[in-house]
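Possible regression after last week's pipeline update?

I re-ran a chain I had predicted before the update to compare outputs. Posting the input and the new output here so someone can diff against the archived version. Not blocking, just want to make sure nothing changed silently.
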Amino acid sequence: MSKRSQTTALPKETPKPAPVEGSESGGKQPTPKLRQEYRSRAEREHEIQRWVIIGTIAAIVVVVLLLGVTIVSDQIIKPNQVVASVDGQNITVSQFQKRVKLERYLRNQQLTQLVQTYTSFGYTEQQIVQQLQQQEPYATWIKELQVSDQMGLSMIDTMVEEQLIRNAAKEKGITVSQADIDTQINKFFGYTPPVLAGAEATATVTPTPTITPTPFVSPTPSPAPTVTPTSEVTATVTPTPVATLPPTATLTSDAQQKKFTDNRDTVFRDLRTQTGMSDADINSYFELQALRAKLQDAVSTDVTTSGTFVDARHILVATEEEANDVIAALNSGESFADLAKSVSTDTGSGAKGGELDWQPITTYVKEFQDAVKAAKIGDIVGPIKSQFGYHVIQVRGREDRELTQAQIDTAKSGAFSNWLKDYKESKKDQTTTNSVWANFVPTTPQTIFG
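New output (post-update):
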């Protein structure tokens, strides 16, 4: 068969044009590939931008969450942590911090007033510090102001007692009115309203409040909390500029009222700004004072207008062994006065040879009362353990006398302290404390002793 007869009858392929010089093989045009490369680059940039935005949003979310957790922790969780519980009633960190700040403020007010008084009599700063460190409760106040753990421990105990007072008052059906609370406010500022409305009245207005931060009944020193400070603290006075107190003025009832109102408003404003207390918190504090006063009256009905006085002296030491050493030294002829001056931890009486002078026995804590009541005149008695340490006592006289009103008030206060101690012991199993308080002891407001 000829070559023509062997054809397939299909059209012949059109010859492909020869590639143009400089072009890519396969005949593909360059423009489509450039568009594809451009789209890929744009997509990559868009993807990067998208991840940057996602990362930024995620970082913001994390920061917001961390801030939220911090705020919730600081504003809700921490303030509501329980530092103590009394018969089912919780005391929170927030309440504890306000109470510490209040106590710092009150103590500073009274210590400032005392420093002003000593300064007006020509005492130097060093002499003022020495005087205050030899007197209770001021020596303890200064120590606690300078060592926050000791202040915190003291306030935990105080707040437990305050809750016990509220609970006991409720048990006894004792309530107070706003008039009772106002009476405590007036007492705090040394203000006595005129008896007759509109009548002219004269009064001596106390320039600064009469402040009693924490009740202190015994002339013996208060116990130092069992906290070891990291370093020895030396008390120094940081003077606070205060205007010279004007001489006592004779005031009309209107002027007296204005003076009281101005003092009250100033102090309450300071309490709000320096301690974070609200008006309700301030009112609650004075409500507690009113409850304390009524409860004290209820449990001290046995106090009479006369009582037993003793002329005693004592030496106070930290341990029973030290007390026995003191007794042995006295029995061997050592001078009571010299030993008191050299070893007694009650620096106030120690400086006077241990002399406590004539006092109603109700002035002292219960253990001391019982000892001086039973002791033979002239005998050395001890060791007598109390909350302050171990006492070695000598009673040199004892007799019954009529009590002044101030002594009756002191006797009632002593009876109340003894009752509260027993009541606190009875509620021991319903009272718990949490050491977390040590992380939240405020060191403000600033005081003249640190």
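Follow-up from reviewer: compared with the archived run. Confidence is low (pLDDT under 50) at residues 1-5, 22-26, 196-233, 239-247. Marking as no regression found.
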